[in-house]
Amino acid sequence: MKIAGYCRISTKKQSLEIQTEKIERWGRGYGHKIEFFKDVASALDDRPEFNKLMERIAKYDGIAVVSLDRFGRSVQQLSNYFYTLEKMGKQLIVLDQNIDTTQKEGRFLLNVLFAVAELERDIIFERMEAGKQRAKEKGVKFGRHNLKLPMNIIISHYNKGASYRWLATTYNTSITTIYRRLKEKGVLNKKL
Known about the structure:
The protein is an alpha/beta fold. The chain folds into two domains: 2-103, Resolvase, N-terminal catalytic domain (Rossmann fold), CATH 3.40.50; 142-192, Arc Repressor Mutant, subunit A (Orthogonal Bundle), CATH 1.10.10. 52% of the residues lie in helices and 14% in strands. The protein is built from eight helices and five strands; from the N terminus they run βαβαβααββαααα. The protein has helices spanning 17-30, 48-55, 68-71, 75-87, 104-137, 151-159, 164-170, 175-185, and strands at 2-9, 33-40, 62-65, 91-94, 99-100. Strands 2-1-3-4-5 form a five-stranded mixed beta sheet, sandwiched between helices. Helix 4 (75-87) packs antiparallel against helix 5 and helix 7 (164-170) packs across helix 8. It is elongated, with a radius of gyration of 25 Å.
């Protein structure tokens, strides 16, 4: 089988070697041919090699990673990737968690992990909502504060050619707020 090995480290000080060796050892044990895609990116950065892998996934029988956190950034993202692979008939092998989606046990374990993570996310959301409700009961206001902008002056500048960016910077607000307020006044003559 032809497998895409995906490795990711967060900083250049770390080494991809451990992940690469684990995947190579696993591949040799099963007689798989491994082609690697390696990223140096934090969980929040763009992952160009991962994107390349997903564009070329049709060429592979599946993806091997050392752990789930190397593969995806959130439960939602992981489940989306998993279901995309499943629809395409591709397998996902996660070595550290011993998950192999070609086996019914592997698919079950992955779904259990997703369900537990979703439950945890729901519990956190409920706690946040309860905290917001308690804060509201104590008089805390949520949402944007209503800005008092000198709209007559802003409209005058706008009609003389001032850009949204210049107006936003000058009046210490966002470009979107300037655009929305000008739209409310019916004076827009150029798109955002």
